[in-house]
Amino acid sequence: QKLFLGTMTSGDDVGATLLKNFLLYKQRYALLICMAGRCAKACNQIAKLPKSEEGTWAFQIVRLVLTGFGGGIIVPIMIGEPILPVRSDPCILLSVMFWFLFFVFPGKRMAHFYNLPIVNEVWILLEE
């Protein structure tokens, strides 16, 4: 039986199968959801900086990509493969989208929403 979130057999436990497929990135949007968690956490860290260290919008976006996807940049360089922002188009798109939500959206509401205890815990789970 083909489901939206992955494949299952009729005798499987639905919750365990969905969790396993999500953690192994076998679901259609699992990687994008986890990348969104990384972007949100990096944006939140940049938003907490003092005004004197924030820099211009271009510097913030570069810092966001390096903070959120640093391992996807450094490791592929060491093993001679293309870096994550080059391999994955959604990486840059998510970075710009979350930068807009955290820094341009009126009243920085996304930063306040992100810092709610339950939302913060969910994002940390997705980020890991």
Q: What does the model show?
A:
- Helix 2 (30-47) packs across helix 9.
- With 128 residues, this protein is mostly helical.
- A two-stranded antiparallel ribbon has the order 1-2.
- The mean pLDDT is 75.
- The longest helix has 18 residues, at 30-47.
- The chain has helices spanning 14-23, 30-47, 51-54, 57-69, 71-79, 84-87, 89-104, 109-114, 117-127, and strands spanning 2-3, 6-7.
- A hairpin with a 2-residue loop joins strand 1 (2-3) and strand 2 (6-7).
- 71% of the residues lie in helices and 3% in strands.
Structure described in brief:
Helices cover 71% and strands 3% of the residues. It is mostly helical.
How would a textbook summarize the main sheet?
Answer: 2 strands, antiparallel
Number of E-state strands: 2
User: Which regions have little confidence, pLDDT < 50, spanning 5+ residues?
Assistant: none
Rounded radius of gyration (Å): 17 Å
Q: What order do the strands of the largest sheet run in, or round the barrel if closed? A: 1-2
Structural category is mainly alpha
Shape: globular
Tally of individual helices: 9
Strand content: under 5%
Give the helix proportion (percent range): over 70%
